[in-house]
């Protein structure tokens, strides 16, 4: 037996066996993200566009809010379930930097894109002002995710050994406390514990628990909870918007509320239980899209810029939202594939 310390920690660097339902989750979450960003121009036009278009957009939006939590849950499942010896150097170089470096590049890139107007006049002042806000605010609408996702990497090295030694009852109790926090946040029972590290970090443990435990016997309850979450999200948005006469969502669209947790739980468990039924070419295609999912997330707003800047929505929302979602997904995938082919650019789209 080789007892050399350096060799004992190397298993952390070896590749894990792929889990297909995680590929499936990455793809459906990426599609949901694109849907949210495609429909963006419709949301604030309450009373200014046909009500059917506004309702279509708001319904798509409300039914897609689970996408960001899914990405965090996947991270929790992968990192917290890993039994290999923890290698801090590998974790920083191959995990943290893989996310941080592309984020910084695209954050700077989008800050300069912010200075470009639809008439191709360039506003340098606006671009520089946007860049100055980078440490505090996202430079483009989709990058806000990284401001609460990247700090979770500070939690993982401590959380991982804790969940490995924690009794099941205590782990389930922690998950239950977090669920209560998400409920109390929705109904505005204010508490000190409503901080992003806990509310977003809870998804790490939740993803780990859903992967670890057999949830199939609870499937009817999980589906019922997901449907209730969807109806609560949509109903809350419609109620607030009607009451105020303008688009309003309060906390119903938040990623930190119990309704979103319920929907994300349903999506995660459905993929876990039924993902393996997908076989053959469909499975290969999904795995291919999954490989480029992070890059798709980073670049798709660039390809959406002309669509939103020039209001390229000539037909009804029920047609245009799916149309631009598919076009943006395919174009983003092709763009990411091209960037990944070059040594000079592959790091932009890990």
Plain-language structure description:
- By secondary structure, the protein is mainly alpha-helical.
- It has one domain (18-348).
- The protein has 16 helices and no strands.
- It is globular, with a radius of gyration of 21 Å.
In short:
With 350 residues, this protein is an all-alpha fold.
What structural class results from the helix and strand content?
mainly alpha
User: What's the average pLDDT?
Assistant: 93
The quaternary organization reads as single chain
**N/C terminus separation:** 36 Å
Low-confidence stretches: 1-14
Number of strands: 0
So how many helices? 16
The secondary-structure element order is: HHHHHHHHHHHHHHHH
Features:
350 residues; mainly alpha; 16 helices; globular; disordered N terminus
Draw up the topology in text.
Elements: H1 5-8, H2 20-38, H3 40-43, H4 51-62, H5 67-80, H6 88-113, H7 124-132, H8 144-149, H9 156-165, H10 168-186, H11 196-212, H12 219-244, H13 258-274, H14 280-291, H15 293-309, H16 317-340
Helix pairs in contact: 2-5, 2-13, 2-14, 2-15, 2-16, 5-11, 5-13, 6-7, 10-11, 11-13, 12-13, 15-16
């Amino acid at each position: 037996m080789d007892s050399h310390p350096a060799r004992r920690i190397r298993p952390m660097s070896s590749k894990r066996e792929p889990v297909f339902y995680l590929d499936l989750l990455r793809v459906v979450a990426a599609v949901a993200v694109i849907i949210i960003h495609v429909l963006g121009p419709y949301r604030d036009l309450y009373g200014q566009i046909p009500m059917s278009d506004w309702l279509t957009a708001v319904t798509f939006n409300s039914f897609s809010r689970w996408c960001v939590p899914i990405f965090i849950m996947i991270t929790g499942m992968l990192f917290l379930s890993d039994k290999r010896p923890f290698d801090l150097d590998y974790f920083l170089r191959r995990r943290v930097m893989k996310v941080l470096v592309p984020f910084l590049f695209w954050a700077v890139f989008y800050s300069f894109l912010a200075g470009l107007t639809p008439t191709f006049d360039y506003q340098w002042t606006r671009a520089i002002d946007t860049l100055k806000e980078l440490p505090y605010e996202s430079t483009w609408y989709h990058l806000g995710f990284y401001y609460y996702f990247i700090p979770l990497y500070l939690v993982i090295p401590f959380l991982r050994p804790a969940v490995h030694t924690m009794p099941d009852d205590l782990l389930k109790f922690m998950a239950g406390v977090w669920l209560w926090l998400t409920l109390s946040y929705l109904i505005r029972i204010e508490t000190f514990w409503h901080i992003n590290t806990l509310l977003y970090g809870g998804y790490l443990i939740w993803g780990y628990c859903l992967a670890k435990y057999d949830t199939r016997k609870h499937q009817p309850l999980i589906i019922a909870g997901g449907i209730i979450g969807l109806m609560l999200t949509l109903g809350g948005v419609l109620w607030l918007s009607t009451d105020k006469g303008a688009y309003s969502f309060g906390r119903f669209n938040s990623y930190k509320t119990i309704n979103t947790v319920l929907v994300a739980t349903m999506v995660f468990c459905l993929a876990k239980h039924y993902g393996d039924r997908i076989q053959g070419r469909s499975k290969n295609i999904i795995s291919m899209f999954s490989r480029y999912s992070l890059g798709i997330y980073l670049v798709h707003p660039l390809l959406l810029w002309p669509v939103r800047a020039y209001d390229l929505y000539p037909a009804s929302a029920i047609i245009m939202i799916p149309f631009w979602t598919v076009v943006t997904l395919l174009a983003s995938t092709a763009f990411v594939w091209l960037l990944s082919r070059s040594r000079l650019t592959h790091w932009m789209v890990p």
